[in-house]
Amino acid sequence: MSATGMHAISKKGSLARSALWGVALCFWFAFNVWAADIRDDEFSERSAEGTADAVSSARSTDSWVLSENLSLVETKMQFRVDNTVRVLRNDRLPQAEREVSFESSTVFYDNLVFDFVGDNGEIVVFSFNEKKFALIDPIRRMRTELGLDEIERFLSRVKPILREKNDKFVNFMIDPSFEISKKEDELFFQSKFIDYHISTRGFENQQIADAYFQFTDALGKLNVYMNPGAVTPLARIEANKRLKESVSFPETIVTDVYPNGKTIFNKTVHIVNESTLARRLSERDRNRVNRTIHFFAQFPMVNFQTYFEKTAER
Questions:
Q1: Mind listing the pLDDT tens digit for each residue in 44-60?
Q2: Which of 51-55, 244-248, 281-285 has the least mean pLDDT?
Q3: Which among 275, 220, 285 has a CA at the least distance from the CA of 252?
Q4: Which pLDDT score is estimated for 97?
Q5: Rounded to 10 degrees, what is the CA torsion of 294, 295, 298, 302?
Q6: Cβ atoms of 133 and 111 closer than 8 Å
Q7: Is residue 6 a part of any domain in this protein?
Q8: Residue 277 falls within a domain, yes or no?
Q9: Full domain range(s) for residue 35
Q10: Mind spelling out the 3-state secondary structure of the chain?
Q11: How far apart are CA 19 and CA 2, in angstroms?
Q12: Hey, which residues does 106 pair with through a beta bridge?
C-alpha cells in the first residue's frame, strides 16, 4: 500500500516507502540517527532483561500460524487495494533522481493483511487478532515479528523528547493541525508544512472501512519505527481521522510537503498516490498469499535488530 513496511526504497535513503501511504519523508539525517539510537537502546535494555527477541516482541510462532487464520471460502472481508505512487522532489538532486515511482498491492484476507511490492520485495503481514507484524524477506530467506504495542511504546517515548528539540516541522508532525474544507467528494487539508488534497468515494460497508483504517494507521506507525526520521505518517494518521468519520476511501491523495514552511522560495516534495479497491481477490492474489504462508513456515525467525541490519545492507 502506498502502507507501506519499507519496501522498494532503501531504509538508508531519503525516502521511505510505506504501503497505502505513498512515502514517508526523511528530512533530517541527524534526527533519523538519533531516534534510531533510542529504538536500538531500548532493544539492548530489553535484551539485558532476558527478553527473547527484544524490540521485535517476537513470541513463539505456535500462537500465530498463518494457515490457520485463512478461510478457504470467499468472505466479505477479502479485498485488495492497488496503489501507484509518484514522488517529485524540488531540490538539487540530478533530474533522474528527482522523481521516484512504484506500485504496490495490499491483500486483506479476513483477519490478516498482506502487503506486497513487486514479486520478490519485502512482504509485510499484519494480524488484526495478534496486533503484530511479520516482516518477510524472500531474498535473504528470513523473517521477524514486531508487536504494535512495542511500536507504540517507542512513539510515546520519542515524542516528548522530539518536542524539546524545538524544530517547527517536527513539532507540527507530532501534533498536526489542519484547516479542513470539503467540496463534494474532495477533502482539503491545509497547514504551513503539509497539504493534502484527497479525492474520495464511499466504502461499501463499515467493516471494510474499519479494517482499512486500522491497518493504514498501524502501518504508518511501523514506517516511523523502521525509519525514525520519517515523521510525515504521523500527520497522515491525523488526516485519516476525518476520512474515518465520513467512511471515505481515498482514491487519490495529492500531498505537498514544505520542510521549511511555505515561503517565497519553497522547497517542496510533491506526492501523488492513486488507489483502487477491488472487492474480490484474484487467483494471483491467492497464489501470493499461499506463497507468503510457505515463506512464513520455512524461513527462520530472527530478532528485529538482526533483520533490520541485514535488510539495510547493500
A1: 555 544 444 433 333 33
A2: 51-55
A3: 275
A4: 58
A5: -150
A6: no
A7: no
A8: yes
A9: 15-311
A10: CCCCCCCCCCCCCCEEEECCCEEEEECCHHHHHHHHHHHHHHHHHHHHCCCCCHHHCCCCHHHCCHHHHCCCCCCCCEEEEEEEEEEEECCCCCHHHHEEEEEEEEEEECCEEEEECCCCCCEEEEECCCCEEEEEECCCCEEEEEEHHHHHHHHHHHHHHHHHCCCHHHHHHHCCCCEEEEECCEEEEECCCEEEEEEEEECCCHHHHHHHHHHHHHHHHHHHHHCCCECHHHHHHHHHHHHHHCCEEEEEEEEEECCCCCCCCCCCEEEEEEEEEECCCCHHHHHHHHHHHHHHHHCCECCHHHHHHHHCCC
A11: 4
A12: 81, 115
pLDDT, tens digit, 9 for 90 and up, residues 19-31: 344 444 444 434 4
Classify residue 146: in a domain, yes or no: yes
Q: What is the pTM of this model?
A: 0.82
What is the pLDDT at residue 79?
A: 96
Q: Is residue 141 part of a domain?
A: yes
On whether the CB atoms of residues 20 and 2 are closer than 8 A, the answer is yes
**Cα torsion 194, 135, 36, 86: sign:** negative
CA distance linking residue 86 with residue 99, whole number of Å: 7
Which set of grid coordinates corresponds to residue 12? 538508508
Q: Estimate the crossing angle of helix 206-226 against helix 148-164, to 10 degrees.
A: 60
Please determine, for residue 233, whether its predicted confidence score (pLDDT) is greater than 50. yes
Q: Identify which of 259, 235, 236 has the alpha carbon closest to the alpha carbon of residue 89.
A: 259
Give the number of domains in the chain: 1
> Any residues with CB less than 8 A from the CB of 92 and at least 6 apart, and which?
none
